[in-house]
Every structure is written in C-alpha cells, then in structure tokens.
C-alpha cells in the first residue's frame, strides 16, 4: 500500500483542475474565443471594397441593434454593431444574414461572437456563440 | 332798357357777393357701383356746409354762393378762379386804409339824418361833395367816389334846369292870364255891341255890320290854347327830368352794390336821401332782386333795404377776415383758406380784404396751387399720384381732410385691380368679350393703372405672338425644358388659351415646377436652420425626377458642401444597388442613417433592401446570383486569414 501523502492529493487535485480550466479559458480570454483561429472582420474594409473579401470567413464580435427583415424559411437580416476594442472609433452598423436553420433567438442588445462568410457582398452568419 | 337793367341786377343780385367760384380745392374720389367714378370735388366733402342755409359758403363745383340763405349763381368759374388767384398773387394795396375808411365814414356822417338840418343843408352837401374828391385820391377807391361826385353834380345841374323851367312856366302862366283877360274883354265888347244892335232894330235903323270883333276873339283863344300847351310841355319836361335823375341815381346805387362796393353804395344812398324829396324815396330799380333777400310777402323795398344789405355785407366781411386771422394763428390753414375765399367773394373791395398782408396771401396761394394740382390729378384719375399730393397738402395745412380722399382712392384702386384681375381670368379662359369689358372698366376707374397698360400690351400682341409661342412651347416641351416653360407661363397662357391640349400640358408643367420650387424652398429653409442632411434628403428626392433643373442643381451644389460624407454614402449606396450589390448598398444606407437618423429616405431604403436581401440571400448563397460587376483590380489580393 503506497504511502502517498494525502496532502499531495489535497493540493494536487485542485492545481490540476485549475490548470485544466486555465488551459480552456485562457485562449478565450485572449480574444480568440470559439473562433479564435479566424481573422477579425473589418467593417471598414468591407465598406470600402467588399469584393476583395468574397469567399472568406471572419470572426465578428457584435451586438444586435435591430432586426431589419425576416423571411420565413429564408432567414433574417440583422443590423449589428461590431464591438471594437478601441471604443474611441465606434464602427457603424452592418447588416448580417442569419439563415433560417439557426434555432437561436436574437434580441436587441444581445452580444454574440460569430463566424461570418462573405458570400458575394452578403455577410452570412455560419456559426455563433453568445458571450 | 329797364328789363335788361333788372336782368343785370339779377345776375349779380348777389354776385354782389362774388363771382363764379373757383373749382373746389383738393379732390375727392367718388366711386359708384361698377365704374368707380372718380370726381374732383373737395366741395363734395363739404356738401353739408355748402347747403347749410345758416352758413355762408361757396359751391366751387356749381359756381354758386350761399349768403343769408339765398343761393346766388356766380357765373363763369374760370373767371372767378382767375380773379381769386390774382388777388392772392397781387401785392397788397398801399395807402392809409384807416384814413380812407374815416373819410368815407365822415361823408356818411355829414349826410346822415342826425347831422343834416335846415341850416346846414347845403353846406353839408357841399362838404361831403368835396370829401369825395379826397377819397378818390386813394388807389383802393378806384375812382368810385368820383363817380358819386359826378352823379351828385348832375343832379345839381338838373335842379338848376328844373328852376329855369319853373320860371319859364310861371312866365307862361302870367301870359296866359293876360290872354284870358283880353279874350274876356273882347267878348264883353261883342256882347255889348250885340245888345245895342238888338235895341236899334225896333227903331228901323239902316242896315249895317251885324257883329264885329269875333275874328279877333278867335285868334286870342288860339293864343291862350298855345300858351296852355306850352305850360303843359314844361310840366312834362319837369316830370321827365325828375324821373331821369331818380332812376340814374338809383341805378348807380345798385351798381355799387353789384360791384360789392358797399361803402359807396351807402354814400350814394345818403346823397339820394338828401337830394330827392320824400315823394321820390321809393325804389324803382332792383326792387325785385332785393325782395329775394327778404322772404316776406308784400315786402316793399326801400332805400333802407339797400343800406341794410350793404351794412350786413360789411359786417360779415369784417367777421370773415377776423376768422381767417384766427384760423391762421391756430395753424388751420385749410380752414382759413376756405373762409378767405368766401370772404373774398363777399367783400372783395372791402378795405379789410384788400389790405390783407401779402405774406399770408402768398401762403394761401401756395396752398391754392397745391389744391388745384390735387384737383387736376383727381380729374385725370391719376390715383397713383393723389396720395403724394394729399400728404403734401397735409404738410402745408394740417387740418386738410385727406383721409376720406385717400380712402376713396384706395377703394378705386382696388376696384380697378379687381376688374383687371377679372379681365385676365377671362382672357386666359378665352372669353375675349368679358376680358375687354373688364379691361375697359379697370381703365375707366384708374386710367394710369400700370397693370392695365401691361395687360393691354399683352392682349394687343397676343395675336402676333401666337404664331411664335406655339412652336416654341412644343419645342421646349419636347426637350423637357420645364423651367423655361414655367418662366414664360403668362405669355404661354395667353397664347395657348384657345388650345385646350396645350393648355393642359402647360398647367401640368406649372404644377410640376411649382412642386419642385416648393421642395427647393423647403430644402433651403432646412439648410438655413442647420439641418443640412434633411435638406439633402429633399434635394435627393427632387433630383430623382428633375435632375435637369438648373435651380435645383444650384441649390444642390450649395448644400452639398456641408453634406459631403452623407451624400457620398447615399451616392455609393445607390450605385451599389444599381450594380446588384444589395447587401453592400444596405450597409451604405445604414451608415448614412447613422449620420442622419430621422432621414425618411434612409429608413425606406434600409427597409426595402433588407427585405430584398433576406429574400434573395439563399439564392446568393447558392451562387445563382450574377457575379459582382466589378472585380478587384488584383484578384490575388484577397486577404488570407492569418494562421493562428
């Protein structure tokens, strides 16, 4: 019967748990989150030349401002405001399309992080998570 | 002769009081129902005053004068106007007026009943006669005293003749008595001879002459008859002389009254009373006219009637001049002017009138000229100039009643303009007859109405321009030159009045540009109220349909300098939408709406595009939509997501 010091378990287990948690949360706290691998979406570039962004996927942190349109079976168009790290330069609203397959509900003021794909000039939300 | 003398007296019975009057100073406007007749007559406003029998007044318009409740026809107004104007312009008569008046009073006193008696009967006459020559030395007398002296001397001469005739008559009377005595004597002799013959016939005396002396008796009787005829002739001559003297004297007295030389009339009357005996004191000349002043049945005119008229006139003249002075002192020049006018026509030759100070008369003359000019403007219906002249007269005479004149002028102008408006409407509707009637009415009320002239010119040239205007309108309409058509809407309206199809087109253009002008005006107001984005919205909306309008383009250019970013976003959005990039266009509209939240065009565009994007999103996702119109210059510059 091994004689392992109980104190080892008492201290070790919490440390392991903490390490695991840090490993999971740290990347998200660093700005990446679920779609950390994606490039942040630049509304300014989109406005200036949307065609250069066609086919790409981007990460967008935003807040719902208004639902502009909803077509049953097709989806909805939301006006969202990107959440910028530099709050001194607020970005204007942009329209995003959420296809009808999504079961999520959207309320004004909700924040979420999403994966955008630029389909021609349309910003289509392919995946999202709230935060 | 007597009839014409009476007629003459009738003409002036109270021309005694003046001549025909000058036309009324100032002018008033008289508008009636349709024509708005404009008549010159300041007297109109004073009609009550003129026909008030309790007041003395002059009717400028009709040439009559009211005095003591009796209306007198004064005759030719032009002559009186000139006479009054001459009085105002003439220098005041020189001389010692008080001394002159005292002389005339002295003459009257010498001849008055209180002074003259049996002892001084001839001496007073002679003294008064001599004073007449002294009075005649004054310019103001104008020799009237000499006329009286001449008349008196004539009566004295006639009296001498009268005495000669009486002497001759007495001699004839004596002769007649002698002749009658001779006849009686001869008749007695004949009768005695006849008696003796009768006695002798019984004694059979021889036959002889039966009667002698009858022939002589016959001649003597004829002598007596001739003498009696001569006596009768002398009597007739005396009667004729007396009557002639009486009529001449009375005529002279009336003449002075007619000429408004009241003091001389009084002196003549005084001399008459002294020179003629009681039986000749009744009035022969001018009795009928004097009666008119005394509306009493069975009134018997006397010398005293004449005297009373003269004294009343002198008193009224004096009172009138006092009133004039008082009004001038109070600054009521117009009232003073009217009173002076009345007083002048009543007592033109009264010393108090003739000696009125020249500087005051000059002031009145200036007012008189302004009033005459105002009257002329009224006569010519030059309504546009009346107001200026009324104000000018008011500046000179603050009591001038200009308000009623201006009120009537304004009414007449409005009536003229309304008629003109009606004529224009009729012309546009193609009703030529009605248009002509309206134009004629407007011109009659206010001949110099500038609108009448313009409209008349338009009407006259209408036929000439028709041939040019129609093709011009067609060309501008085909070229969509709405603004050019609008700017010439009145000529086009007149020219196309009969052409219903083109008139409808014209009305459509007028409505279109009217609406555009309203939008431009609205944008300008918003811009000046520091709402440039909303102003731009209005311009953008108008620009969609009227992009060729120069006025709109200018306003757009003015506003665009303040809305660069906003207008850029809208332009970009419209271009993107046009290119099929609806989502990108929606992004641009949202950005524009961020700048101008209350913008309705942004809101509408966002709503429309959002719906369109939602409906077409799946199609886009499947790639069924057309490719984007413009690819980036460098397709390989698509950004690659960085590897983490």
Give a topology summary.
The complex is a heterodimer of chains A (131) and B (644).
Chain A: H1 6-29, E1 39-40, H2 43-48, E2 57-71, E3 75-82, E4 94-99, E5 111-119, E6 122-130
Parallel strand pairs in A: 1-2
Antiparallel strand pairs in A: 2-3, 2-5, 3-4, 5-6
Chain B: H1 2-12, H2 42-45, H3 47-50, E1 57-59, E2 64-67, E3 70-73, H4 77-89, H5 97-111, H6 121-135, H7 144-201, H8 214-258, H9 262-275, H10 287-291, H11 303-329, H12 333-346, H13 351-354, H14 358-379, H15 383-396, H16 403-428, H17 432-445, H18 450-478, H19 482-487, H20 489-495, H21 500-528, H22 532-545, H23 550-560, H24 564-578, H25 582-595, H26 600-621
Antiparallel strand pairs in B: 1-2, 2-3
Helix pairs in contact in B: 4-14, 5-6, 5-9, 6-7, 7-8, 7-9, 8-9, 9-11, 11-12, 14-15, 15-16, 16-17, 16-18, 18-20, 21-22, 21-23, 22-23, 24-25, 25-26
Tally the beta strands of chain B: 3
Largest sheet of chain A: 6 strands, mixed
H-E string of chain A:
HEHEEEEE
Helix fraction of chain A by DSSP (H/I, runs of at least 4) = 10-25%
Instruction: Write down the overall geometry of chain B.
Output: rod-shaped
Strand and helix order of chain B: HHHEEEHHHHHHHHHHHHHHHHHHHHHHH
Number of continuous helical runs of chain B = 26
Please characterize this protein's 3D structure.
The complex is a heterodimer of chains A (131) and B (644). Chain A is built from two helices and six strands; from the N terminus they run αβαβββββ. In chain A, strand 2 and strand 3 form a beta hairpin. Chain A has one domain (38-130): Nucleic acid-binding proteins (OB fold (Dihydrolipoamide Acetyltransferase, E2P), Beta Barrel), CATH 2.40.50. Chain A is α+β, with helices and mostly antiparallel strands. Chain B is mainly α. The N and C termini of chain B lie far apart (147 Å). Chain B has helices at residues 2-12, 42-45, 47-50, 77-89, 97-111, 121-135, 144-201, 214-258, 262-275, 287-291, 303-329, 333-346, 351-354, 358-379, 383-396, 403-428, 432-445, 450-478, 482-487, 489-495, 500-528, 532-545, 550-560, 564-578, 582-595, 600-621; strands at residues 57-59, 64-67, 70-73. Among the domains of chain B are: 2-91 and 308-401, no CATH class; 99-173 and 225-279, no CATH class; 563-622, no CATH class. The interface between A and B is large, with 39 and 36 residues.
């Amino acid at each position: 019967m091994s004689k392992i010091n109980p104190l080892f378990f008492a201290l070790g287990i919490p440390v392991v748990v903490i390490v695991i948690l840090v490993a999971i949360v740290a990347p998200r706290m660093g700005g990446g989150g679920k779609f950390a691998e994606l490039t942040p979406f630049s509304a300014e570039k989109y406005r200036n030349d949307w065609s250069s962004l066609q086919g790409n996927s981007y990460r967008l942190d935003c807040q719902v401002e208004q639902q502009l349109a909803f077509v049953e079976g097709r989806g909805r168009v939301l006006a969202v405001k990107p959440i910028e790290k530099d709050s001194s330069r607020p970005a204007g609203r942009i329209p995003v399309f959420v296809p009808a397959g999504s079961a999520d509900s959207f309320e004004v003021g909700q924040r979420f992080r999403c994966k955008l794909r630029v389909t021609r000039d349309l910003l289509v939300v392919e995946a999202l998570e709230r935060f | 002769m007597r009839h014409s003398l009476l007629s003459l007296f009738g003409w002036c019975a109270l021309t005694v009081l003046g001549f025909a009057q000058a036309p009324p100073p100032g002018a008033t406007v008289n508008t009636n129902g349709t024509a708005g007749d404009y008549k010159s007559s300041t007297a109109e406003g004073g009609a009550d005053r003129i026909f008030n029998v309790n007041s003395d007044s002059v009717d400028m318009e009709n040439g009559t004068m009211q005095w003591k409740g009796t209306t007198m026809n004064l005759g030719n107004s032009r002559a009186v106007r000139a006479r009054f104007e001459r009085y105002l312009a003439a220098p005041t008569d020189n001389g010692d007026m008080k001394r002159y008046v005292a002389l005339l009073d002295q003459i009257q006193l010498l001849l008055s009943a209180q002074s003259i008696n049996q002892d001084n009967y001839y001496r007073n006459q002679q003294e008064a006669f001599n004073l007449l020559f002294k009075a005649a030395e004054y310019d103001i007398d104008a020799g009237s005293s000499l006329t009286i002296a001449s008349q008196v001397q004539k009566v004295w001469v006639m009296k001498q003749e009268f005495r000669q005739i009486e002497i001759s008559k007495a001699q004839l009377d004596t002769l007649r008595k002698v002749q009658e005595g001779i006849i009686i004597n001869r008749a007695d002799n004949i009768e005695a001879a006849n008696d003796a013959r009768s006695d002798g016939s019984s004694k059979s005396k021889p036959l002889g002459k039966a009667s002698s002396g009858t022939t002589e008796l016959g001649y003597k009787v004829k002598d007596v008859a001739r003498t009696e005829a001569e006596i009768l002739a002398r009597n007739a001559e005396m009667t004729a002389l007396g009557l002639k003297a009486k009529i001449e004297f009375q005529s002279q007295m009336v003449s002075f009254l007619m000429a408004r030389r009241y003091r001389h009339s009084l002196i003549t009357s005084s001399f008459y009373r002294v020179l003629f005996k009681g039986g000749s004191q009744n009035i022969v000349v001018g009795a009928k006219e004097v009666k008119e002043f005394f509306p009493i049945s069975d009134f018997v005119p006397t010398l005293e009637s004449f005297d009373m008229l003269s004294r009343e006139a002198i008193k009224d003249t004096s009172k009138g001049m006092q009133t004039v002075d008082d009004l001038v002192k109070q600054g009521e020049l117009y009232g003073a002017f009217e009173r002076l006018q009345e007083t002048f026509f009543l007592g033109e030759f009264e010393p108090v009138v003739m000696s009125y100070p020249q500087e005051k008369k000059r002031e009145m003359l200036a007012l008189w000229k302004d009033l005459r000019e105002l009257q002329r403007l009224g006569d010519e219906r030059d309504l546009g100039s009346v107001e200026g002249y009324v104000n000018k007269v008011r500046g000179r005479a603050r009591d001038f009643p200009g308000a009623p004149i201006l009120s009537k002028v304004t009414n007449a102008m409005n009536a003229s303009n309304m008629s003109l408006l009606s004529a224009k409407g009729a012309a546009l509707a193609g009703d030529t007859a009605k248009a002509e009637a309206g134009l004629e009415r407007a011109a009659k009320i206010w001949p110099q109405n500038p609108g009448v002239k313009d409209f008349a010119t338009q009407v006259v040239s209408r036929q000439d321009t028709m041939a040019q205007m129609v093709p011009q309108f067609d060309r501008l309409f085909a070229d969509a030159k709405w603004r050019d058509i609008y700017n010439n809407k009145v000529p086009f309206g007149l020219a196309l009045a009969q052409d219903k199809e083109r008139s409808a087109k014209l009305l459509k253009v007028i409505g279109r540009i009217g609406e555009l002008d309203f939008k431009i005006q609205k944008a300008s107001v918003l811009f000046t109220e520091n709402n440039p984005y909303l102003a731009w919205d209005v311009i953008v909306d108008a620009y969609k349909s009227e992009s060729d309008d120069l006025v709109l383009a200018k306003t757009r250019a003015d506003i665009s300098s303040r809305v660069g970013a906003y207008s850029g976003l809208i332009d970009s959005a419209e271009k993107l939408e046009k290119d099929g990039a609806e989502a990108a266009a929606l992004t641009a509209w949202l950005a524009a709406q961020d700048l101008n939240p209350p913008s309705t065009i942004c809101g509408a565009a966002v709503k429309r595009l959002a719906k369109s994007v939602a409906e077409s999103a799946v199609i886009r996702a499947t790639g069924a939509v057309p490719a984007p119109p413009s690819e980036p210059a460098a397709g390989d510059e698509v950004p690659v997501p960085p590897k983490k």
